[in-house]
Amino acid sequence: MEEKILILNFGGQYDQLIARRVRECNVYSEVKPYDMSLEEIKAFNPIGIIFTGGPDSVYKENSYHPAEGIFELGIPILGICYGCQLIAYHLGGSVVPAEEDTAREYGRTETNINPNCPIFDGIDSKIVTWMSHGDYMQKIPQGFVIAATSQACPNVAISNERLNIYGVQFHPEVNHTEFGTKMIRNFLYKVCGATGSWTMAGFMQDSIEAIREKVGEGKVLLALSGGVDSSVLAALLAKAIGRQLTCVFVDHGLMRLNEGDEVEEAFRNWDINLIRINAEKRFLEKLAGVTDPETKRKIIGEEFIRVFEEVGKQIGSVDYLAQGTIYPDVIESGKGNADVIKSHHNVGGLPDYVDFKEIIEPLRLLFKDEVRGLGRELGLSSVLVDRQPFPGPGLAIRIIGEITKEKLDLLRKADYIFREEIEKAGIRNDMNQYFAVLTNLRSVGVMGDGRTYDYAIALRSVVTSDFMTAEFARIPYEVLDIVSRRIVNEVPNVNRILYDITSKPPATVEYE
Ligand code: XMP
């Protein structure tokens, strides 16, 4: 990939969003830590650099700053929010805390832009932008001109066409900023001279060649879960190396109703080696009595690998284990000092010892929507490509507390009813993920004339574009009513249904 944009992350929350926006404009981008050295930057050889926002103040001690000399490289730079302030601070302007009610802006802000500035080319002169800053540029650096203003803030955007350095106080990457993508596109094409070489068709060809070169005559084992990522990876590998690939579908007994058979069915007619392993018993044994969420995840991640190793030995001389790791996992895992919220079992849960020559992760540079695009390019059906996400640890993280076969069967039934009614109501596309959770709450109820003391099922449904933040879906009461009645009537040992109305944050999508 010759044409790359480097996104230096200064601790902003929108780093991935910026990278996705750039890629949506058909230019490849990668997110790297802010302290990437000048040598590394030169070796990366980007056609442009974007500085993200960040929670800090540039003038504070220990705040994040880019490598010295970065402004002298002659590479175009776009600074966003904190990134814009960095430009001002380093090139001779000044950044100060905004006084109460002046120049401090949060949320939607009317902004006047100068359409003569290359990054605002073709954009209305009065637009709404999305701001979130407590500092502002009091003085802009010499050689720069003001490219946008707002009522509260005289210096909303700065530009220096000679140096090809631009800064915006607002966030062009969020949807609330009008023409935001157009601004990013302008930066890429009008400032950095991009040609738009990043497409899934191109990625597919490059990957197939790279996989063939790497693998040679070797054998590859793929953990196929039936989820979008592993299905697309299976198709990619099948195209690259055909029967050198063996897909192992480990049915850990933590799948949804009928899911195991559906996955097998979907791949049965492909020209690959497909092995289905029924490992329910061994997973449930390992999980018996375990209640801690992280321990559950670690156990499942580890057990997966152990199963693959065994299959690998049976097949003989397996060189590579392929995994469907995607870019958000890679970025998240690389953030050394961030809190581990959950260890996704395909990354954080990996044991230290893995009995394969190497793990290959051909999708590790792709965002989810790109994986879907690649899937379409490879000719996969919408049933597989547009599936809602299902976590690797499966229903284990949707049963709070100890996992038993009885609880799994109970949850499977409730979950199936919920999904069936969503389909029937024709509202499937109004939400991005929906499922049932078995809480460990038991409560008193009355059925017939008798007292019950049974489980509460929680229903979870979210609307989100990236699963980093999410809102609960506004499912009509009539649908919830039907679901509630059906679950209580049809699923034994359940007497209460709760609908989860928390967003992420503060809650996460899954319960564990
Ligand atoms: P959370 O619960 O972190 O979930 O808000 C965000 C999205 O990630 C999915 N998820 C997982 N996917 N392995 C996966 O492949 C995992 O261990 C895992 N945990 C959560 C979750 O279903 C949601 O879509």
Question: Would you kindly provide a written description of the structure presented here, covering whatever features stand out?
Answer:
The protein has helices at 15-24, 38-44, 82-90, 180-191, 200-215, 228-241, 259-268, 280-287, 293-315, 327-334, 368-377, 382-385, 405-425, 477-490; strands at residues 4-9, 28-33, 48-51, 77-80, 94-97, 105-113, 126-133, 135-139, 145-150, 157-160, 165-168, 220-223, 245-251, 273-278, 320-322, 358-360, 433-447, 450-463, 471-472, 494-499. By secondary structure, the chain is of the alpha/beta class. The protein has three domains: 4-191, 3-Layer(aba) Sandwich (Rossmann fold), CATH 3.40.50.880; 200-385, HUPs (Rossmann fold), CATH 3.40.50.620; 398-499, GMP Synthetase, Chain A, domain 3. A nine-stranded mixed sheet has the order 2-1-3-4-11-10-9-6-7, sandwiched between helices. A five-stranded parallel sheet has the order 14-13-12-15-16, with helices on both faces. Helix 6 packs across helix 11 and helix 13 (405-425) packs antiparallel against helix 14. It is globular, with a radius of gyration of 26 Å. Residues 342, 344-346, 389, 391-393, 433, 467, 504, 508-510 line the site of xanthosine-5'-monophosphate.
